[in-house]
From TrEMBL:
Name of the protein: Chromosomal replication initiator DnaA
Source organism: Brevundimonas pondensis
Domain Chromosomal replication initiator DnaA C-terminal span(s) in chain numbering: 20-89
CDD domains, sorted: Bac_DnaA_C
InterPro entries per the UniProt record, alphabetical: DnaA_C (IPR013159), Trp_repressor/repl_initiator (IPR010921)
Amino acid sequence: MESYRAEPYRVPVTEGDRIRADAALHLAAYAFGVPAAQMLRRERTRPRACRARWSAMYLAHVSFGWPLERVGHAFGLNRATASTACRWAEDARDDDRYDAVMDGLESGLRAISELPAVDLALALGGDR
């Protein structure tokens, strides 16, 4: 008898969405003192890393104005997981310290995302 092993849920995501999701993830990692590698683990992770990842998803949702489905896809998860993460983060904003950190991260991520794109090959004077 052959065993059936379902392939993981995969949705095509643009490179730009992945880059933006990575920016949110790494900013959250820095702010909460959690290595990004812990936040990216597919197996069960520590609560602190899980909450930092949820914060990153919420950060992408509010900073970029992404719908929850897009957030989930950009982070390699489904919409329900993104929804749970954003609901937790929104509730956590009742804590003044967390709220202040998230305000700063939102401002920083928006500022970074509004910077002009630069082609480094051209900026450095050709192909180096």
